[in-house]
Design brief:
PUA-like_sf; globular; Sulfate adenylyltransferase; ASCH domain-containing protein; ASCH_domain; DUF984; alpha+beta
Length: about 140
């Protein structure tokens, strides 16, 4: 067993075109932050990431493509996400409003609502999110 096989997976979005775009943005260096719902961690019984933790970035095909290291984790209300974080998500957002609109569409989507077990789930300014900053340590593909 290699060291990489012991790493927990780092999953961005759900498998498919969005995950593929996000993974490509990480590999190109354009994406160095990501945001998740605290409710997702709670629903899945997962621990929050920790600064210094290394994880295996997984593509839509289930393959490890890189090792990333979490460098910062903040838990904060959605309404407090700042422009630097939004821009560093590497998805082409020019403002926090654009970033939020894109994330709300994802979080209000059927896959997220199913993962949370709440078909009516919605977010607002007080919804707690997990804002992570990370860096690519090694490309494995």
């Amino acid at each position: 067993m290699t060291d990489h096989e012991r790493l927990e997976p780092y999953l961005l979005a759900f498998p498919g075109p969005l995950r593929d775009r996000l993974v490509a943005a990480v590999l190109s260096g354009g994406k160095v932050t990501t945001t998740g719902l605290l409710a997702e961690y709670e629903a899945e019984g997962e621990e929050l990431p920790r600064a210094g933790e290394r994880l295996a970035l997984i593509d839509s095909g289930g393959r490890e493509v890189a090792v990333v290291e979490v460098t910062e984790v903040r838990v904060l209300p959605l309404g407090e996400v700042d422009l630097t974080h939004a821009l560093d998500e590497g998805e082409g957002y020019a403002s926090v409003a654009e970033w939020r609109d894109g994330h709300e569409r994802f979080w209000h989507g059927a896959e997220t609502r199913q993962a949370l077990g709440d078909p009516d789930f919605t977010v607002d300014d007080s919804t707690m999110v997990v804002a992570e900053r990370f860096r690519v340590v090694e490309r494995t593909r």
